[in-house]
Amino acid sequence: MRIGIIIGRIGDVDGAALETEKWIKILKELGHEIYILSGRFKKTIVGEDKETLISALSFFSPECEWEQNRAFFLPPDEPSELLDHLHRVSDGLAIRMFKWVMQNKLDILLSENASTLPAHLTMGMAINKLVETTGIPIVLHNHDFWWERGDRYKTPFPEVEQIVKETFPMQIPHAKHVVINQHGREILKEKFGIKSVVVPNVMDFNQPYGQIDEYNADLPECIGLEKDDIPLFQITRIVKRKGIETALELIDRLDDKKVKLIITGSAADDNRKGYYKELINIIKKRKLGDRVIFAHHRILNERGTLPDNKKIYSLSDAYAHATACTYFSTYEGFGNAFVEAVLGRTPIFVNNYKPVYWPDIGSKGFKTVMIEDSILTDEAVAEIDKIIHNKKMQKEIAEYNFNLGKLIFSYEVLRDKLEMLFA
Prior knowledge:
15 helices; alpha/beta; 2 domains; Rossmann fold; about 425 residues; about 15% strand; six-stranded parallel β-sheet; seven-stranded parallel β-sheet
């Protein structure tokens, strides 16, 4: 089939974009032709002849920023100008999308979170109008929903609230919905009577990952570790829901001063740096300055080179040198960092983040040290202490989790799901 993908941005490192690339790889292997319509291409994904840019679909476009400010952040006294804009611009986008469908003779559409989260109102409205008017088949890949974001999409205007409720998610009968966790499936059924298929986020278990090689052999030295240090890696962004303060508490409660916490995320991800400052204060208060390393300047998503010719290491390189990983998040839509640790054959210590971890991951049988409600019990600390000082135990846990992960979160699992969805 000729499949048209609509996404706000592609080739980026956000979860939706990364999972979309995995779907594209498998769909192409299954023999489908892929066309992409996006507001932003960070790199070429399927070839320039099959990629169409409409800059107004970008989350960073003037149109989108104006809509978000008027609808949610800086609402005016009354919404007439905003409502006129939303309907007029979405009509125009729907027409441009229709032309794209016809020019490429598309058989089916795939909407990547664009019809789920009202982060771009007119894009979601345009897709809705396109599908409603033409009846073209569509698969909605729903990564996260607006009601999971607290007050982020709260508006003073009933008219805008109505648009959000009717458009996100799409509620057209022939649309097929995909969610990334069991909770999403339950909520869609409960709130809207929509049936959906759970397709978990996956990793390629057939490619080398998290292995020490010639390139990354000097990573520990380059980020300030000594040879006999025991590095625990926090391979996440620095945002409050990642529960990094629990990892700091763990380091403080472990008696071995050679145990170090390596935080790979950047403070740039933290809105107004409030959480980053909170972490710095905890480090000072607990006197952990010599046991915590912020390594964002040397560890990024992919390998590269700094202006001074120093090496940039990838997340795979980080997992290669991790004795174990801390992952004490309080909320996740899925938990890509968990599966990455499994893929990198790294033991992991995790908080039972609600509502996803136990139903979708923990109950599958992975060997972890799991805590509840971010509370580090004496038993949990003792078990962690035992694992990080026992190389044989680390290897046994890592191999067991890797083999289980391959059964549950591999490309082969995704292939089976996509064959069914696009049959």
